[in-house]
Please model this.
Amino acid sequence: MPATLRGAVVGLGMMGRHHVRVMREMDGVDLVAVADPGGDPHAVAGGLPLVSSVAEVVAHGIDVAVVAAPTGLHEEIALELADAGVHVMIEKPLASTAEAARSIVEAFEAKGLVGCVGHIERFNPALQEARARIEAGELGEVYQIVTRRQGPFPARIADVGVVKDLATHDIDLTAWVAQSPFTSVGARITHRSGREHEDLVAAVGSLANGVVTSHLVNWLSPFKERMTVVTGERGSFVADTLNADLTFYANGTVPTEWASVSSFRGVSEGDVIRFAFAKREPLRVEHEAFRDAVNGDPSGIVTMADGLRTVEVAEAMLASARDGSVVQLA
Model:
């Protein structure tokens, strides 16, 4: 059995508190310290040493760390941890700019360290089930992926807009589910809440394999919605990631005898199936993948290179919104 890893959490805000909870409960990881210059607002430290700097937390002899600090601090914290030889999982997005994200990637590659990004939607059981079924050919050729991520403004977000905070989920999960990168994006944004950053984006994209994408993301809706719809030649998968449900809407095979309806020669309604499958907490599965990567199996993580690509696509969305162009991606 691999030796137990000594771990720490840097940043004890809304997400940091959940990382602390999961790391306390995990096999193979011993949470030995937590760090936040603002203290412990959610009282999660318990009997753990609570420090205020990266240097102090590194002094506890840690092997791994989770960075759950504000996005604008990711680069500084990550580079300090890389310099100390610590394997790191950084909450998404990897950094506030592609330039900063690239510097993080290069630092961890140079040190030969495991670095990954907390794009937690990849670990949602509904999307994992959908991806496995798509890979097995159950949808046939995939035509389109549509995501909707809407809800009220979370007061905890102050340093980025809806594109880098929320749309990065959809950028990453779409490329991952389709197993193909974005090649172009076009987007429109708006500012309605009086903040410096955008609070709504509507974007379309193209993937290298020909899949067309559409994304509606905002902080302006009074209801919360987290939906991914994958449409292919045999029907559609609808993943509700709030409830981790996956439903299949099959293309119908029964002839339609009603003349005014049958004159449209498209697909028709078929069977509807909501799949039953195991549903584990995504954050726990994400942590297990990070632990396993440090122990030699990197197959399950979202790499920092993946995280960089996502930030690049997000910046392309913002560039498109600024000048009304369609931005091509390498």
User: Anything to note?
Assistant: The mean pLDDT is 94. Residues 4 and 249 are 45 Å apart (CA to CA). The chain has two domains: 5-121+283-303, 123-280+311-328.
